[in-house]
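re the bet — no i am not wrong, look at it urself. input seq straight from the record:
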Amino acid sequence: MTRPTPPLSRRALLRSGGLLAGAAVAAPALHAMTQVTGSASGDAAPAPDAATAPLVPPPDPTRVQGLPSESYGTRSPFETAAQLTPTGVVSGSSWTPHQELLGTITPADLHFQRHHNGIPFIDPARFTLTLHGLVDAPLTFTMEELRRFPSVTRTYFIECSGNGGRGYNNPKPELSPQIIDGLTSNTEWTGVSVATLLRAVGVKPTARWVLAEGSDAAVMTRSIPLAKMLDDALVVYAQNGEALRPANGYPIRLLLPGWEGNMCVKWLRRLEVTDVAGMTREETSKYTDPLPDGSSRQFSFVMDVKSMITSPTWPHTVPEKGWWTIRGLAWTGRGAVRRVDVSTDGGRTWQAAQLPGGAPPLAHTRFELPWYWDGRPAHLMSRAIDETGAVQPTIEQYRKVRGDNPGYHLNAIRSWDVAADGTVTFGG
C-alpha cells in the first residue's frame, strides 16, 4: 500500500534547499592560518604564535576587526572540497568532488586531471604552436599572436572516456560521486577557433585528419577528423576567466566539445594536417572499446548521454524524515539534454526532474527533484535523455551491448541506496 505523501510546504521547500549540500557533514578542523586578535567584547587578546594559531571565528564578527586582504583570494577554511588524487606521482588521475559542488561550473583548481608523464613546466614567452602538413602556408604562432585572433568563450564539459570505471568494475557501498564519476568537469573556456587557424594556413583538398601533439614527456598525440576541427574545436588559453592552470594544459590546450577527454590534448604544440589517421599509441593500444564478440571499436569519439545523482549520496546522510531535494548533473556529447527522470523505487516508477538552469548544449545540466522521504529504504536512480532521443541505459542493457569489461564510455545508470537510518551508499 502506498502511503500518502504530505504536501510540499514553502517552509519544507526552503529547508530542503540546504540539505544535501551539507547534511551530516561535520564542521572541518580549521587549519593553522592566522590569528584574529581581539575578543567579542572588543578587548585586545594576547597574540599567540601566528604560525601555529588556528583561525577561530569570533561569536560576533561585527565586534572584531576582520582579516586583512590578500593578493590571491582563498576559500573559507570551512569549505574543504578538494580533488581526490595520489600526490607526488607523474601518471594518474585526479577526481572532481561533485558531491561538494554547487551549480554547474567546476572551479579551475577542482577540474579533473589525467597525466601520462607529469605536468610540463612551460615558459609562455618561448612557447609556440605550429600548423603544418597538407596546408598552403605552414605557420608557427606565439602566444601573443594567438591572442590577437578573435576570441571565443564557451562553456563545455570535458569527460575522460574512462569515467565511471571504478563504479562499474569494482562497485563498493562506500563510493562517492567523486570516485565514481569525478573524471568529468564543466568550465568556461576562452580561446581561438581552430577553423580560424586552419583558414590562416590554407587546408589542401586532400586533407581529412589533423594530428594534435602535446608538449608533455609522454608526447600525447591523437588524430582528429578535419570535419570536427572545422566545426567547433578550440585552442583555449583561459578557463573561468583566468589563464589555464598548468595541470589543465597551460599555456594552451585543444578543446573538442562533446568528445572524449584524451583527445583534448593539453600543452598543445603542433597540429599536422594529414590525409589519414596517425594510428598513434593512444588510439590503437589505448582508448578503443572492447566488444563482447572479441572485436574492438575504434574512433568512438563522442561521449554518450549520462547523468549522476550528486546528493543524497555517500558519504552524506538523510538525517530525518521529510522533504529533501535529489540533485545531480546530466550531460551528452551529442548536443543538449532534453529530460532527466528520477526514480526513488529502483526504476519501477520515474518522475521528470526540473532543470533549473536550462540545458545548454555540450555542458553539464543541473537537475533537481523534491522528494519526501518517509523513513523507509529507498533506491535512487537517474536517467538522462538527450536531444537525439538517446536514453541512458540500465546496467543490464549496457552489458548486452558492451560486455563486462568495456574499459571506456561507461554511461549506464547509477543508483544509491538510502537505508532506514538515513545512511546513503552506492548501489551499483
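see?? The helical segments are 10-17, 19-22, 143-148, 165-169, 177-181, 194-201, 226-229, 395-402. told u. also The first strand starts at residue 92 and ends at 94. so pay up
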